[in-house]
From TrEMBL:
It comes from the Bacteria. It comes from Ruegeria intermedia. Keywords: Membrane, Transmembrane, Transmembrane helix. The chain crosses the membrane at residues 6-24. This is Glyceraldehyde-3-phosphate dehydrogenase.
Length: 47
């Protein structure tokens, strides 16, 4: 992955998080954060 692709991916992710925060608040971000943590734990198990 090049630096330019990583920067654009980071900008898109941060833009999505800011849009979600502006439209619905923080409840969804907390839920998605917990689910992402569970996913990372599950993937680390299979590694």
């Amino acid at each position: 992955m090049t630096n330019q692709i990583a920067i654009w991916l980071g900008v898109l992710i941060l833009g999505g998080v800011m849009l979600d925060y502006a439209l619905v608040g923080t409840e969804h971000l907390l839920f998605l954060g917990k689910k992402f943590y569970d996913l990372l734990d599950w993937v680390a198990f299979w590694r």
